[in-house]
Amino acid sequence: MTYHFRQLEDIFKAFQYSQNTLEKEQLFANIMNVIRPKLMMKFRMLGIDHQELEDLIQDTSLKIYLALHTFNFNTNVPFEHYLNRLVYSVKKDFWRKRYAFNQRQQLLINECVVEYRLNQMIKRTEELYLTRLSKEDLIDSFKKLSMFEREVANLLLLDYSPSEIAKRLNVKDKVVYNSIQRCKIKMKQYLLKYKC
């Protein structure tokens, strides 16, 4: 790899000294044609998918392009060393971003779970409250019923069948059915008049 970078240093210097934009673009394309496979090898070791690999290479290419304008080739530090440091920093940035993204995603999931549970609790509380109100309204509507009708309605609420109610109260089935109909009518009138 060092051999290739020694060859490229002349192209790097030509890139730095060139005043022509088109020539700079061609020189940079030549540089990237040589460097790109090496970057692919270095980033492929991260075990990431192709799109992320392309993003990392593009990010590194941009940083190389910006660095070529200001890099001092007269020092003893070779550009290869700078490139290795650049790749190292891009890798670290990638893992930092990946970690932050995963953390953010986990926080969003936790937030959704908490919100879902809160909504479930609120829904349960509302249902209990509405059930209690309905029960109170139903009990209030019993005030308009006669004693016999009230007895039949209470037994119906306890899940007795009309025939079981008739046996329990020692009356005919027809009397119970008529009483149930009267209960429905009276309770409906009461609820429509006072609760709606």
TrEMBL record:
Single Gene Ontology BP annotation: DNA-templated transcription initiation
Function of the protein: Sigma factors are initiation factors that promote the attachment of RNA polymerase to specific initiation sites and are then released. Sigma-S contributes to the protection against external stress, thus playing a role in cellular fitness and survival.
Similarity field: Belongs to the sigma-70 factor family.
Record protein name field: RNA polymerase sigma factor SigS
Pfam families (UniProt xref): Sigma70_r2 (PF04542)
Record carries keyword Amino-acid biosynthesis: no
InterPro entries: RNA_pol_sigma-70_dom, RNA_pol_sigma70_r2, RNA_pol_sigma_r2, Sig_transdc_resp-reg_C-effctor, WH-like_DNA-bd_sf
Keyword Lipoprotein: no
One annotated GO molecular function: DNA-binding transcription factor activity
